[in-house]
Specification:
By secondary structure, the chain is α/β, with parallel strands linked by helices. It contains seven helices and seven strands. This is Nuclease.
């Protein structure tokens, strides 16, 4: 979220109330995410599908006239999800498309999430289906991270919904402070 010079000061109670209305955004092109939407449903976390310019997940605060918010407030933060190191390797191999997405996300809080808790180890040991050399894959990933200012998180699939929710919860909370 770009700094506008204008800030509201919310009490802790107001902040909690605002954050309780947060809606998760899921890119309309996102596939195979039932485990994520099941988590959101089980925790009564609101979500909706929307075409995102970059990333697969984001969040917004809906209009809340009682709190003085006259329209939906969208945040530039996004997370790109890969369901495995195999998908990550294929994506990085398609450099131009991946880099174009990173360029669109540049300057925004952005993270790359890979559903594999042993993902980093699998990269450095070459345990993935692509013929992409392990050192070359790691070099490409780390080069993209430093060039475009994002981090890669390797995470177990059953914790992804929780991670997404709290990532955006605290991103928005800190933006509002």
């Amino acid at each position: 979220m770009k700094e506008t010079g204008m800030k509201y000061r919310y009490t802790d109670t107001e902040m909690k109330e605002l954050l309780s209305t947060m809606v998760m955004l899921i890119d309309t092109r996102e596939q195979q995410n039932k485990h994520i939407t099941d988590y959101f449903d089980s925790k009564k976390i609101s979500y909706k599908s929307k075409k995102l310019d970059y990333g697969d997940y984001s969040a917004y605060l809906p209009k809340n006239e009682k709190m003085g918010i006259q329209r939906d407030v969208y945040f530039s933060a996004a997370i790109e999800r890969k369901n495995s190191v195999d998908e990550l390797a294929a994506t990085i191999k398609e450099r131009i498309r991946f880099e174009n997405e990173l360029i669109r996300a540049q300057g925004s809080p952005f993270a790359l999430m890979v559903e594999d808790p042993n993902g980093y180890q699998n990269i450095i040991t070459g345990h993935y289906r692509s013929q992409y050399n392990a050192k070359a894959l790691l070099a490409s990933l780390k080069s993209f991270e430093t060039r475009y200012g994002f981090q890669t998180v390797f995470i177990a699939p059953h914790t992804v919904g929780n991670y997404l929710y709290y990532h955006f919860y605290y991103t928005i909370r800190n933006a509002l402070k």
